Amino acid sequence: MMSQTNRNRIGFWILGLCNNYSYVVMLSAAFDILSGSKEPKMKIDPDDNQETPICNPMSTGAILVADIVPALTIKLISPVLPLGTNIRVILVIGLALASFIIVSLSTTTWISFLGVAFASLSSGLGEATFLIFSSLFADTKTIAFWSSGTGGAGVLAAISYASLTSSLIGFSPHTTLLVMTIIPVIMALTFWILIKVPTMENSSTENSLAPISPPFGLEGDIRYETIQVHSPSDHLTLSEKLNLMKSLWRFMLPLTLVYYAEYIINQCFFELLYFPKIWLNHKEQYRWYQVDYQIGVLVSRSSISCIRIKYLWVLSLLQGLNVVLVLVQVLTNFIPFIWFILLLVFWEGLLGGAAYVNTFDQVYRKFDDRHRGFCLGATSLADSLGIAISGFSSIYFHNLLCDLLNR
Questions:
Q1: pLDDT at 407 (0 to 100)
Q2: What is the reported pTM?
Q3: What count of other Cβ atoms lies within 10 Å of the Cβ of residue 243?
């Protein structure tokens, strides 16, 4: 029979997958949401007789803004929400379910954006809640399995969307999103049935039991048991939180920069990386770029047991170089084959996933039990902040690049 430790590890992997699934699907569907069911119009360049894509009037960065700003907002206010974990998870599941249904049944762009915002709220609240929840587990691999699950979400969501909407299967984007309503159901079964809060030995009072005091933001939860704890988990004062934030900047800033750079590529450049007259049309190329990127994320987010990266700034610099390289490709088309672009996109995903898992692994190991929950939750703001800034930037750069490309 499977041990409870292994059940918890598998449970956190599934939670990571389910939590990020709707978020990734909305980004994979961004081109479809903005352009509807029609293929982008093409114009013929008289100089080389090549088809050049005419940009969507609105950048897919607009979908990114709708898919991340609510998540960032909910992460900021999550610590003061007077809700226990059960209620939070119910909200996470309900918002994810609503997002799929709303976007699938939408007939106008603004309703689709509302559905995307619901997916964002679900993902943001879920990440803040489950990262803090993970601090209750003495198993140091909990974060590794959560991170790997979030990487798995990227691959499964991107592949499932691209496959179901492909010409081979032929589902419409709307039907595909309805099929995906099974994901919130899986999350519910995992959290309430598969995972169990473990017992831990008390290092200060031998063989004694002490009621757990859950991390700030998870109070009033009937799901928490009377367990043995290493040390008291009293609420942190404002002064303590500010001091902790000062020590977190060296983890948060590199993660913010990595995510800013990679989402500039994903939501500003992907739709402009078009290779005409190949086996994939414009929309399909965009979807499979997303798949390729997410495979890279999955590989690196699952790598923490094999390799740890100490210097997070290196990842920021390498991702910045990727932005420059892809921008040059958009402007000059100096790379003639899509396979080289797919390799570059995979590398981009590797860097992003490595930044995520190594950041949270270092935070988990650096801070003690009393501070760990707050620090993990606070650090989760970094990637959302980088993504949010890149979403707004993508809209501006999209319009600028479209003007250049369509002259």
A1: 64
A2: 0.69
A3: 13
